[in-house]
Design goal:
The chain has 11 helices and 27 strands. It has about 575 residues and is α+β, with helices and mostly antiparallel strands.
Length: about 575
């Protein structure tokens, strides 16, 4: 009796394991490609009269699509929304730099949900939601990570020795710097193909996040052959400012290189028989970084005009979606996570307020009853969002806009509200505020309720997350201006501090790498209430604190150079644990 019961239990367990494996292996693979600063009109399929993108155009023709798909006008907020299904104001990632692009680690990411249910998860490209533990992709659900730090190559987060290279760049693989060979976009896509091969060998479905940093500037390092191709083309049909032509040529070289790589991945999927069961999503993170062709709209990156916040959105999944299906309902970045979770046959995280909706029923052409909704877009510089500052409130037909300027920390009081009928006026030329006061007031009321809601998601909602120092998962913490809190100066700042959380009592070797030569004299390292000093006897570009010991708790770190009349900026600070 006992043996029989044991055998029965074993059979049930084996059947459970077998069904579980079958379920995992039958799930769709997922690839999400999102490019950086590529505008709506930077594709042949969207009407660009100069740029050639045959592979993305083919992907689009084989896809279902959302006609009006919205993103934020800048990159990190879009990425936070994509990863969580929540408006970025809920996630603490409210800007793109100086500590405000870090996403709260309590957020449950798309990668975490898929990883928990058996997916192999990989990111190749631009994360831009935190560079240090516990904010890195490998802390937030990704098995494999090959990324640059911060918002881009050639920004203050890159290793100094990279020297602003896009070709043969120093990237970070699973948290460690590695020298790569080739143009960065090629490197990301090649790594993703290797990840597909490994996942197939391991018999696991895969989720690949491919966020390229191209065609983000600077533009000094682009594929030469493609640069020469567009250098010889007539750009007049773009109706862009001729002063931008040289940079547009370089952007187009980057974009066609992306297109070649999209073709490489889609061809690999078809050659290996994976294409029918693989979802491929393609979109952009915001509008173009300079004025150029944006289809039937106007606007650029940072603007809340349609051209700054509209993206193509193509979803190719031959197993389930009919090519050419066009969704007329408005969609947004917050919809990607719920759409993919439903497509994978999984459930959304319990107890988490998701702002997005699954678009899958519409992509499949089922068109269920779905109450119309309003999308809220707001992005501007500064430490906290400000009511009515640089906003777009968008419904199926009407759009309320107050374009006070992304770069301003405070809005000008004289900037008016504008109301547009997007169905009849996609270029936003005719302000209808006076003609439709009731619609204007209704959209304002919806916005105010939304602003209050997202701003009360957690206590101290807009405080940036703290970087955790001393954890075994990151024994060398790499601090840069990307994540510091600016205390003085403009732009990236001339003085700043890092908000840290020390785990336990630890000893560290601290290297301070300066942006320029450090004048002879004392250099102070302030951590909380403690101050450490090292004498710098001669011109150098770094100083070393050989051993300091810090107790647990929340402490801010600041470097003070005392021997120069002009501010000396700490380029990078390395805290290396000695008691590993």
């Amino acid at each position: 009796m006992t043996f029989s019961r044991s055998l029965s239990c074993c059979m049930v367990f084996l059947l459970f394991i077998s069904s579980r494996l079958d379920s995992v292996e039958s799930r769709p693979n997922i690839i999400v490609i999102i490019t950086d600063d590529q505008g709506y009109g930077d594709l042949g399929i969207t009407g660009n009269p100069v740029l050639e993108t045959p592979h993305i155009d083919q992907l689009a023709r084989e896809s279902a699509s959302v006609e009006r798909f919205y993103v934020n006008p800048v990159c990190a907020p879009t990425r936070a929304a994509l990863m969580t299904g929540r408006y970025n104001f809920r996630t603490r990632a409210i800007d793109t730099w100086v500590g405000r692009a870090m996403m709260d680690t309590e957020e449950i990411t798309l990668a975490e949900v898929l990883h928990k249910d058996g997916y192999a998860t990989g990111i190749f490209g631009k994360w831009h939601l935190g560079d240090c533990y516990p904010l890195r992709p490998i802390d937030q659900g990704f098995d494999e990570s090959l990324i640059h730090l911060g918002g881009g190559l050639a920004q203050p987060s890159e290793p100094k020795e990279n020297e602003r290279r896009y070709t043969d760049a120093i990237l970070f693989k699973n948290g460690k710097p590695v020298k790569t060979k080739g143009y960065c976009t090629d490197v990301y896509f090649d790594a993703s193909i290797e990840f597909i091969k490994k996942s197939q060998k391991d018999k696991k479905p895969f989720f690949i996040f491919l966020p390229t940093n191209a065609p983000h500037g600077p533009f000094h390092d682009v594929p030469e052959k493609l640069y020469q191709k567009y250098k010889s083309k007539d750009l007049a049909p773009l109706k862009a400012n001729p002063r931008h032509y040289e940079n547009i040529v370089r952007v187009f070289a980057m974009v066609e290189n992306i297109d070649e790589n999209v073709g490489k991945v889609t061809q690999h999927l078809k050659a290996t028989g994976l294409d029918k069961k693989t979802i491929v999503i393609y979109l952009h993170d915001n509008g173009p970084q300079m004025a150029r062709f944006v289809g039937p709209m106007v606007g650029t990156k940072t603007q809340v005009h349609e051209g700054g916040i509209r993206s193509p959105f193509y979803v190719r999944w031959p197993q389930r979606l009919q090519a050419g299906t066009v969704v007329k309902k408005i969609g947004a970045h917050i919809d990607i996570m719920p759409t993919l979770i439903e497509a994978a046959g999984l459930e959304m995280p319990k107890g988490v307020k998701i702002d997005g909706r699954s678009l899958l029923p519409y992509l499949e052409g089922r068109n269920p009853a779905w109450k119309d909704r309003t999308i809220f877009i707001q992005s501007h510089r500064g430490d906290r969002p400000i009511l009515y500052h640089h906003i777009a409130v968008i419904g199926p037909r009407w759009k309320l806009r107050r374009a006070t300027g992304f770069g301003k920390q405070q809005p000008s009081p004289d900037v008016p509200f504008e109301l547009f009928d997007l169905i009849n006026d996609p270029k936003e030329q005719k302000n209808l505020v006076e003609q439709h006061p009731q619609i204007t007031n209704d959209l304002k009321a919806q916005y105010v309720a939304w602003f209050k809601d997202v701003g009360s998601t957690r206590p101290n909602n807009y405080d940036p997350p703290r970087i955790v120092v001393g954890n075994d998962k990151e024994t060398v913490t790499y601090l840069t201006q990307q994540d510091w809190r600016r205390l003085a100066g403009r732009g990236w700042g001339t003085q700043g501090e890092w908000w840290l959380r020390f785990e336990g009592t630890r000893s560290f070797r601290v290297r301070v790498l300066a942006k320029s030569k450090i004048h002879a004299g004392p250099v102070h390292l302030e951590i909380g209430k403690e101050k450490f000093t090292v004498d710098n006897p001669a011109l150098a570009d770094e100083v070393v604190f050989k051993k300091i010991t810090i107790g647990p708790g929340d402490k801010n770190l600041k470097v003070v150079f005392t021997a120069s009349d002009k501010p000396t900026i700490p380029y990078h600070v390395f805290l290396e644990r000695l008691d590993r």
